[in-house]
Amino acid sequence: MSITENLNKIRSSLPSKVKLVAVSKTKPNEAIQEAYETGQRIFGENKVQDLVQKYETLPKDIQWHFIGHLQSNKVKYIAPFISLLHAVDSMKLLETINKEAAKHNRVIDCLLQFHIAQEDSKFGLKMVEAEQILESDKFSTLKNIRIIGVMGMATYTNNVEQVSNEFKRLSTIFQHLKAKYFNEDQAFSEISMGMSNDYTIAVKHGSTMVRIGSTIFGARVY
Ligand SMILES: *Cc1c(COP(=O)(O)O)cnc(C)c1O
What we know:
The chain is of the alpha/beta class. The chain has a single domain (about 5-215), classed as Alanine racemase (TIM Barrel), CATH 3.20.20. Helices cover about 40% and strands about 20% of the residues. It has ten helices and eight strands. The protein has an eight-stranded parallel sheet. The structure holds pyridoxal-5'-phosphate.
């Protein structure tokens, strides 16, 4: 099936409130352009250098999301234009994002990444670490970042029950943080969870943003 057909199929299966991030990492501009022509505007990348190149050569109304682990020393390259950072998992990174955003007079939206999978290779915060960040004096001084929700990746497994439980945990984490720190804050509203192999499960458990790559663009060749 074509990229257009894949996109249409996915869109028809998603509730209208769920945003679709088309994960275009490793894919050429032509593939992104085809998706763009169907109306897709949110694209996800996980390598700074590739993202900058795509930003420079593709239409300027694309909303670029950075979905990978971001190194502090690379924030400056994407700070001028990035629309959302999905995988923020340290105070140090938040401070750097804040500093670089200020240089461009921007407020950059971020999601806190939580560790929900059993695999220990995946990045992400524990609840206590997130609370330490949110309760710190330093955090309250960061005026050029805005936390708009949480992000997580489930274990890569066919075990539906396990994946369900991991997504349920992220939903619970979101609700806890919302009640405790963001009750008055309308912007704190996003749960980024679900990829090609598990997005239908994620949507059942309250995902507001799914990140789908290979089901749209085909398998990645590295
Ligand atoms: C690559 C990637 C995706 C998309 O993966 P697919 O299985 O191709 O849908 C989603 N989220 C993150 C963080 C990724 O790195």
